[in-house]
Amino acid sequence: MTGRLDPLFSRTLPEGDTHQRDVCDHCGFVAYENPKIVVGSVVTHRGKVLLCRRAIEPRHGYWTVPAGYLELGETPEEGARREAREEANADLELHGLLAVYTVRRLSQVQLIYRATLADGVFSPGIESLETQLFDWDAIPWDDLAFPTVHWMLGHQRAFEAGKGVGPFGNPVGAD
Amino acid sequence: MTGRLDPLFSRTLPEGDTHQRDVCDHCGFVAYENPKIVVGSVVTHRGKVLLCRRAIEPRHGYWTVPAGYLELGETPEEGARREAREEANADLELHGLLAVYTVRRLSQVQLIYRATLADGVFSPGIESLETQLFDWDAIPWDDLAFPTVHWMLGHQRAFEAGKGVGPFGNPVGAD
User: Fold this and answer.
1) Nearest 5°: CA angle at A100, between A97 and A103?
2) Which residues are in the Nudix hydrolase domain (chains A, B) (predicted)?
């Protein structure tokens, strides 16, 4: 226990601001809260797509793509490559932005890249139970972890079919 | 002054994590810090581009495009339109993502849209000293507020010249 004051936040509209913020009554410090950036990639290899079965909550046991929160000082591309190393021990080549999604409820913006395996090598990282290349017809659609995984796999298919170059956005009416 | 404990943060690597975090010695709370999202737009109208002269720091008095931090619960497109209303009293039509930049030093990811004025109307908002439509040859290049404003105006020119559809990224070597 120190002699310092605790911060004492009140919800208020700072002068000239457009949104209410938590402002400290003692010192006027404004505690801004900001949306978070998720970076990830749809990784393909010889016509198949790489999925990871989650070893962590939320959605333990369900399938997803390599993705996670962007870290301070990273570019989105660096973050997408780091997540693939962490979750699938995979080195990626990135080929452009497939999609920008907003998950409004979570204040998340997702930047999803098209990628291929640099050398064909992958295996489960510490956050994955298993990693597997799936033919499109064999994708476990009912066991995907998140709605955005459905969206990005559909948009990857659209891209491959020449139905748009991206970046795609949220499906109409979905956020 | 209350009877609560102050948070007592130590810089440490939480189990299973890949980055050091500020973790509270009392309760184990992990204070994640995340990159911030800036949203903005290059707004054109009849071949001219809309710039705003900043009435706020940093870079008071210098010219920029309508842009600012994305708020909780907003889509990037909504944020870009809000910033144009706040800074230039302008309603926008958005036409796609022009660029995704990373300002590594500030842990900022910028999502910049191509836009036009919905009705040709604009005027200085509270954060702007003046707002003006510039011919390309008349842009005050030496008085632009930030390097990214140079980048996005260059990329808008490249787009208009058919030299790429975007989203463009940082110029090579610049972050």
Assistant:
1) 150
2) 34-161
- The phi-psi region of residue A162 (left if phi > 0; otherwise alpha if psi is between -120 and 50; otherwise beta) is left
What ipTM was assigned to the predicted interfaces of this complex? 0.87
Q: What is the DSSP letter of B106?
A: G
Give B97-145 pLDDT, tens digit per residue. 999 999 999 999 999 999 999 999 999 999 999 999 999 999 999 999 9
Domain boundaries, chain B: 1-32, 36-160
- Select the residue of A70, A100, A126 nearest B34 (Cβ to Cβ): A70
Please tell me the CATH superfamily of domain B36-160, with its number: Nucleoside Triphosphate Pyrophosphohydrolase (3.90.79.10)
SS3 A34: coil
Burial of B90 (0-12, 13-18, 19+ CB in 10 A): buried
**CB proximity B72 to A under 8 Å:** yes
Q: Is B34 on the interface with A (CB under 8 A)?
A: yes
